[in-house]
Amino acid sequence: MKNTIAERILDFLKHFPPFDTLSAEELFAISKEVVVLHFEKEQYIFQQGNTLNDCFYVVKDGAIGIYNDKTLVDQCDEGDVFGLRALIRKDNYLLNAKAIEESIVYAISSKLLEKIIINNTEASQFLIASFATNTRNPYSEEDKGTLFAYETFTHKNNSDFTEIQSASFSKNPITCKSHTKIKDAALVMSQNKVGSIVITNNKQPVGIITDKDLRYKIATGLYNIIDEVESIMSTPVITFPPNITVAEAQIAMLKHEISHLCITKDGTVNSELIGILSEHDIIVIHGNNPSVLIKEIKHATTAIRLHEIREKAHHLLSNYISQHIPISFVTNIISAINEAITKRIIHLSIAEMSETQPTTFAWLALGSQGRKEQLLLTDQDNALVYEDAEHNAEVKAYFLKLAKAINDKLNTVGFEFCPAEMMGSNPKWCLSVSEWKKQFQDWIIHPDEDKIMLCNIFFDFDNVYGNHQLVDDMSESIFDAIDHYEIFLNFMAQNALKNPPPLSFFRNFLVEDSGEHKNQFDIKARAIMPLVDAARVLILSKNIKNITNTIDRYQKLANLEPQNKHLYETCINAFKILLHSRTQQGLKNNDSGRFIDLNHLSKADRLKLKSCFKPIKNIQELLLVRFNLSQFM
Amino acid sequence: MVFKRLKRKITNYPDFWLAYIDSFDAKKKASIENTRFVAFDTETTGFDRKKDRILSIGAVSFTGKSIEVNKSLELYLEQNIFKPETVQIHGLMKNGYEEKISELEAIKVFLNYIKDAVLIAHHANFDKTMVNQMLLRHGLGELKNDFIDTGVLFNKSKHIIYKESLKEKYSLDDLCKELNVPKVDRHTASGDALITAIVFLKILSRLDKRKHLEWGYLLSK
Question: Which of A458, A604, B68, B121 is the most buried (most CB within 10 A)?
């Protein structure tokens, strides 16, 4: 029997998740049973406390707002699904759904929902995930409202990915009291053949002693073996709850530079100790992990070896991304690896130099590496600063040679040479500290477009290696100069607005209209850089030194300006989503991920990207007002 | 003429007709929210009430504001009359792939479907006439249902001050444009029935709730 209406409904639904994963027959069966609903503006579909309607909803035309009391928490437009939570939980509605404009909505019965769940894993994972995240604020959460978190669910049971398994820790940890003699504690450790002992009070962990403490503090004679353990223990201990994942454990160990974590009942130091998790426990779980990689880096003697290790890190990255490990943790780990590689290369390069080093220097990572936001292998951007010395020409020659060796090795590892030659081996960017100061002054006092661009790259420097004092002097000089030429910040803010929010008047993406990437979306220039640039100019205006990471910058701004806290937080989340999208894109296409072909994005991913544009617009408006740019332009 | 008079005298109507008539018996006007509406549309071989025939009937029913797709109706009729020039409008070919039933069978199904519902059609007179002609051909009476014409209703719903700008006759396309209803499947009977239903609901929501949401207003010409 022909059913034109159902066919049309099918034609509509098949473009949207989860229906796009269903077969034509399954979808036709659903389409036949749809109930078409019409709502006037301001009319409620359901209200808080209402008993369950036996269906969930798909917006056909118009827009439905999901409200917690009167606060809009999510907006559903064409193709969006809502009303799932109550249906799955089988209880009353917790939120209001109200038509923001006149709307036509398809209602799909819960019986059909069950059929979908039973027959199609992909669709059900989507529905479960969208149910789980349905109530979140679209702009404040990384996993925006309706549609995006489902991959986390798909992978949860996949044992290939060890990072999200719960880490198995040693139960029955060896403990002693704080007044135990060091010697007695060491005896207990030896008897039990363990490398650590936890000092407890009332079963709660107060400190820890490891083999390392015995080596550094006892064997060196700093303390006596009849002293009490209290005098040498590390305290407080870092604690976690028993369900800690491998990834969390690795991150915690890297972050605190420790090798043992205490597992307590509720994860705080104020509850009972139930186990201990050592670095070794994690290495046993699998070999391809950050701490092992960092160790391997430290032992590498050639750039080729480092290249192999960087490849492993790349593999690690793609695992992390597919597992939806929070992007800020991923950037921390990859930045730590990149930094370790760079440090190692500098060590190796210094060792190769035949001449003796004339004076101290520092190696600076610039741009995305300087901001510690580099996930994919991109061009290298770096610079070198050395202490002022009498025979500048000779000194410079030495450091140019050293920088050349470093740049070559970085290239071997996979960080390609910068086409614009922004590298330490370029005589323009291998300068003494006073030359740098002069350079910065010139940029700040006589800004033009090119110089602002250089500031954008060079002001995000991170001291990877060498004499910190030199780098501090450089930062200092930047702020001194800005203090005297405040108009510079206006130029910089103006420059931060050169890429407007990437949505056209009709809420379409702005895409490149010519060139190699025609009709592709430039996620770097149109979405990521506006956020990075805004954070930079705001943090400079606050005189904050040494914070280069964009997320950290917004965090700091949120602390400094509680009245704008919400805006800065939305910027952080948007930035995370964009970074994640770019990395995902880059991994997929094996490139820098900069250009995105919108036709290949799912509706869900498109919405996710779009949700990032509002914060961009808001932060640019803030710049416009704060730096009086309307009269400036 | 003789032939026609004979037909009128038939007293032993078939059961399905009697059942249809019976559905009106206990009729008291229900409130608008509780009334069953059927929006329908016909595709025909042309506009001549005597010579042309119904090729397809599409209908959707709703009570309140829920249009249940699984309770929609889509009929294709066997007809000996075929006009190639109208194929481009309705897309129904003489030997198309749609499963076809006889006119009498279609009448049975249609009457059983509409029962005593209030019928809604765009330019209702035409559809009403075509259906009545079909009923008469089979010796049955005319439709007894109340009718609402979306074209007429739209005209009425416009405030008096806009009256001058009103068109004499609004096509369904005009209404779709005015009321922002997406046009999919224009010129299939079912598609037009669904669009007519949505157009009706949209006009309803624009009416003055206190003055006009009552039967006298909706049904009057």
Answer: B121
